[in-house]
Structure formats: structure tokens, C-alpha cells
Amino acid sequence: MTQAFDAVAQQRVLESRAETALALASRLGADACEFGASVDQGIGVSVREGDVESVELSRDQGIAITVYVGQRKGSASSTDASDESIRSVVERALSIARYTGEDAASGLADAELMATHLPDLGVHYPWALTTDDAITRALACEAAGLAVAGVRSSDGASLSSGEGVRVYANSHGFLGSQRGSHHSLSCMLIAEDAGGMQRDYDYTSARNPDELRDAAAVGRSAAERTLRRLGAQRPETGRFPVLFDPMLASGLVGHLMSAIAGGAIYRDASFLCGRLGDSLFPEWFSLQEKPMLVGAMASSPFDGDGVQTRDNVFIDRGSLASYMLSAYSGRRLGMQSTGNAGGARNLRITAPLESRDALLQKMGRGILVTELMGQGVNGVTGDYSRGAAGFWVENGEIQHPVEEFTIAGNLAEMFQGLVGIGDDTDTRGSIHTGSWLIDKMTVAGG
User: Fold this and answer.
1) DSSP state, residue 277
2) pTM higher than 0.85 for the full model?
3) Hey, what domains does the chain have and what are their CATH numbers?
4) Alpha-carbon distance values, 323 to 274, 345, 386 (Å)
5) How far is the CA of 21 from the CAs of 31, 32, 277, 327, in angstroms?
6) pLDDT per residue over 395-416, tens digit each?
7) What's the gap between Cα 326 and its chain centre?
């Protein structure tokens, strides 16, 4: 990076700005105020066919201030964190609050819920990476992939590295801050045969750059994934078991979390409204949140309301045990916050795990899906329909790649129809899961 990022100094500055904003809001007539700010700096490079395609050095900063006058709320934001800007943002927020309607659920989270245990969760690993070093790593990744026999060309390799600070404070006297980092490297390659071109990719991602996979290994893996897609056919139409690759299975968890989010529940915009306590999955399946894991991708001791985060069980032995609630959505539902303003953090599954081969044998005849396209998921009804690509399976063995088909079902039925989870856990994101085998889905091919 061309300019050093002093995360500790930035943290102190933002904490000072928070105190300034809260005091000013009180003087100007706010009954309560909350302040959020972040500053991030990073480098991103992309290469293609051995040439540098882009180099981006970024620095982003933002503040957001919300004030409450009685139960009227006003919010304003800025990319400028100077004292003058803070005054302007507070004044604008107060002006907005005077024109908004009263909302009985509005206001800060309850004071007794504020986080008091604020340990260092080991999520900040700065990387002294020069632009030349970043380019060298991206080129090495791409070159390793291009060197694999059968790969025709590259669609590019990219490396990004960044770190930042976020601060949240409110009128209860809570002030929390956290430094963090994120680093990743990816490669996408192209192969071609008589049937046409195929492309695929692989990537590595971590908080700590020392935990990134070797650049050449990522390139070679991208090549292998691309080559195995050559010769793709359209599958037949019918009802078949579907095995979701781990990268896609995490999306199914994401759809579940969206459906149990408090905002969707109180708006009556989820297929899981009124289902608290109901059996959604097989009894052997549980889903927990672990926000205090050291070094994990989404760890934080406090949520977006300043509430202490905690281990939550959302699915307990197959049953929906809890919604995912912020202070506001909790009040709307007559419940208490679950420490989930800003979403869930570090989702982990408890279930008996099986090898990929064992799941394929259990499937017998069906489809292993490795790519999904489109946005065909209806959160209100649970209806699910996506374009897909993957591999046809017969007698528990992969036969050939398939493409240009859709898979369809209903999320509630898919969750009930979960018959196995793989031990091939993808740990690159905040949702850790292996492959998911769903007993039956509608496949529309050729």
C-alpha cells in the first residue's frame, strides 16, 4: 500500500468523534443518539493473460448518526468525519426526526443489554503488502492455472487485501470498537472442446494472510474445476435427488436466516412466520451462531445496536428455536433482541457428517450442483427456482457434466428433505457447511 494504515490511531480518532457526536446531539435537543463510523483501506489488483489489468488503492470512510426525539427517529450520514461534518449530520438528523411519525418500537436497545465483555477476538491481521508483491502473487496464481494442460485462456486472477476499523456508540454510555482485516485471492480460467467453452474458478479467503492457500495451488484448482466441465450436456427432466456443493449449500443456510430475520417476520413477509417451535429439518440437524470465536470471519462482541452478542441456537434438533432479532424487530414482535442487529455471525452446523462419496452413493441417481444462476427465491412463499450446472450421477458415480437446466422446489420442503451433510466443509466464509443432499427436486433439462 502506498500509505500506511495506523489502525490504532484511526480507532482513537473515531472514538473521539463518537463522543463529540453524542454530546452535541444531547445539547441540540436529542433525547438519545447513536453513532456508527468506519474507515477502511485496501489494495486490489487484477491480472489477465500475464498482464496487469487494474490496480486499485482504496480508502473509504463513513459516519452515520441516528437521533431520537421522543419516539421520533432521524438518521443522516456522511463520508466526512470532521467536527464540522458531525455538527451538520447531527443537525440534519434532528431536522428529519421532527418530520417523522412516532414509532412505539423506536429507540436504543435497552441499557441492560449493552455489551460489557469486549475481548480482542483476533480478527485484525494487517498485511505489509506492496503493489508489486500483490501483482506477483496474482500472476503466479494465473500462471499455475494456465500451465495445466487443456486450459485455453484466463479470465483473470485477482488479489485483494484490506483492513479497517468500526466504531459504535450510543447515549447509554456504550462505546465499542473493533479492528479487522480481510484478504483473498481468486482465479478464473477458460477451457474449450468441440462442445464449446467452459469456465470456472477457485479462491481462498482469510482474516490472516498466513492462512491463505498457496497462490499456485489456487490456480491449479481453478484449472481442474474448469476442465471437468468440458463436454457438458443437458440433463433429462424429472424429479431427482440434488447434492449441493458446499459453496452453494451455504446459500441455503442464508435463505433460512433471511426467512427468520425479525424484519421479515414482523412484516409478515416470510414463509416461516408463525413457525417458531415447528420442525423444519430432520431431528439430527442443529444450527448455532458463535459470534465470539477467535479469528473467525464474522466475530464481534457487540451487534449493530451495541447489544452483547452471544451463542444462539436457531435450529435445535430440527426445530426452529429462535428468530434472529435486533432491538427494533424484537420490540415489534414483543420479544427481546437476540444480539443480531446486522445479521448472524459465524454459523455452525451440528449434524452427522458423511463423505462426498457416501452422499453420492446415497443419492444413487441425480445431480451434483456446482453452480447456480439467477435470483429465483421467493422469501414469502419459500418457492425456489434457479438455473444450474453440475454433474449427472448414476449408481452413485459421477458420469458427465451437465448444464442449461433449472432446479426447483420449496425451501420448506427442501429443508425437510435434507438427507445428509458432507464432511467437505467450506470454511472460507462465516457460514461453515459441507455438501447438502436433498431427497427430491424438480429438474427441468432437455
Assistant:
1) T
2) yes
3) 7-227 (3.30.2290.10), 238-251+351-444 (no CATH), 272-349 (no CATH)
4) 10, 14, 26
5) 13, 11, 43, 22
6) 999 999 999 999 999 999 999 9
7) 18
